[in-house]
Specification:
By secondary structure, the protein is an alpha/beta fold. The chain folds into two domains: about 210 residues, no CATH class; about 80 residues, no CATH class. It contains eight helices and 13 strands. The strands form three sheets. A nine-stranded mixed beta sheet has the order 4-3-2-1-5-8-9-10-12, sandwiched between helices. Strands 6-7 form a two-stranded antiparallel sheet. Strand 1, helix 1 and strand 2 form a beta-alpha-beta unit. The chain is globular.
Length: about 325
C-alpha cells in the first residue's frame, strides 16, 4: 500500500506526538510504501496560503521512519515535488495530520492550505483518485470539505468534531488495509487508543463513501441551504457549524435514507437535535454524522466549499465533478 502523509505541528506537545508516531512506525517495520512530509512550525509563526506564499520554511521528508532529507521550500508546487510517484498496483491512502477548521487546514496565523489545495497535492502526485483520504484533524466531516474532495477519493475518514493530537498513523490497521471493508478497522482501533491515552478528545469519527448518493445529497443541500436556521442544530461552540440532519428535520425533511447510502460508519448517532451551543472551553461537540459550515470561519481567500454558505459569496465558481 502507498501511504502519503502531510504532517504539520506548531507546538512542543504536537511535535512530541509526531516523533512518538515515527518511533511506532520504526519499531514495526511495516511493509508499505510510507512517505511523510513533516512541517514543524513555531507557535507564533505566520504563513499565508501556499498558493501565494513566498516565505521560506523547512520541510523534512521521511520514508517510513527514516529521515531522507531536510529542504527549504516556499510554495505548493515545491511541496508537491517532495512526494515520489506511487508504486503501481497498490491502494493509495493520502492523509493530512494537523489543524483545521473544516475549510482551511490552518491554525491561527498558520494558513497553509485550503481543502482544494490539499486535493491538488493528491491529484498531482497520484494522477488519479486516492482510494482513501484521511483528514486526521478537526471538523472535516462537513459537506463543504467532502464535496470539494469528492473527485479525488473513493472513501474519506473524517471527524464531525474536534480531534486530539493522536494520529491515525498510530494504528496497526492503517498499514494492513487492502480493501474498503477494512477502513472501519482503522476507526475502531483509534477509538480504542482514545481509551488508553491521556488528555485526548472523544472524536466523532465518520467513514464516508464518495458515491452517487453523496453527490445527489450535496445537490439537495445546495437547494435548501438558505432555509437553514442559524439559531438551531448546534454542534460545537460556533453557531455556523450545523448538523445537516437536524437542519433538514427542522424543515420537515428526513434524510436518513440518503445518509445510509454514503455513511458507512458513524461513531455517534444523532438521538436529539440540540439548539444550544457547546461551551467554548469544552473542546467537545454534539453528535453529528455530517456538518455544514454556513459562514466563513475566518477572513481569507475564497474556497470551493463556500458554495454551501447560507448566502453564496461573489466570485465562487460552482462545484463541478469530473
Amino acid at each position: 500500500m502507498n501511504i502519503y502523509s502531510l504532517y504539520v505541528t506548531r507546538s512542543r506537545e504536537e511535535k512530541k506526538y509526531f516523533y512518538k508516531t515515527i518511533d511506532f512506525i520504526g519499531q514495526n517495520n511495516f511493509d508499505n510504501n510510507i512517505q511523510i512530509v513533516y512541517l514543524d512550525f513555531k507557535y507564533t509563526d505566520s504563513y499565508e496560503n501556499l498558493v501565494t506564499n513566498t516565505k521560506p520554511f523547512k520541510a523534512q521528508v521521511y520514508q517510513g521512519a527514516k529521515l531522507i532529507k531536510s529542504v527549504i521550500i516556499h510554495n505548493l508546487s515545491e511541496l508537491i515535488g517532495l512526494y515520489p510517484s506511487p508504486k503501481n498496483g497498490k491502494p493509495n491512502v493520502f492523509m493530512y495530520s494537523g489543524h483545521s477548521d473544516g475549510i482551511y487546514l490552518r491554525k491561527k496565523s498558520l494558513r497553509l492550505l485550503r481543502i482544494e489545495d490539499f486535493c491538488t497535492i493528491i491529484s498531482s502526485v497520484l494522477n488519479k483518485k486516492a482510494d482513501l483520504i484521511i483528514y486526521d484533524c478537526c471538523l472535516c466531516g462537513n459537506i463543504n470539505c467532502l464535496s470539494v474532495s469528492y473527485p479525488y477519493a473513493d472513501y474519506i475518514i473524517a471527524s464531525s468534531s474536534y480531534w486530539s493530537y493522536m494520529s491515525v498513523l498510530d494504528t496497526y490497521s492503517l498499514f494492513k488495509v487492502t480493501k474498503p471493508e477494512h477502513y472501519k478497522d482503522i476507526i475502531k482501533e483509534i477509538m480504542h487508543l482514545e481509551k488508553t491515552e491521556k488528555d485526548v478528545y472523544v472524536t466523532d469519527f465518520v467513514l464516508y463513501h464518495m458515491n452517487e448518493a453523496f453527490l445527489e445529497f450535496a445537490k439537495m443541500v445546495l437547494e435548501y441551504k438558505n432555509y437553514f436556521d442559524l439559531k438551531k442544530s448546534y454542534v460545537i461552540d460556533q453557531s455556523y457549524y450545523k448538523d445537516i440532519q437536524c437542519e433538514f428535520k427542522d424543515l420537515g425533511e428526513i434524510v436518513t435514507n440518503f445518509f445510509n447510502k454514503f455513511i458507512l460508519f458513524q461513531r455517534f448517532h444523532v438521538r436529539k437535535c440540540r439548539n444550544r451551543k457547546i461551551s467554548k472551553k469544552s473542546d467537545t461537540s454534539w453528535p453529528s454524522g455530517l456538518l455544514i459550515i454556513l459562514k466563513r470561519p475566518m477572513k481569507s481567500i475564497p474556497t470551493k466549499g463556500d458554495v454551501f454558505f447560507k448566502t453564496t459569496q461573489k466570485g465562487i465558481e460552482p462545484l463541478t465533478y469530473r
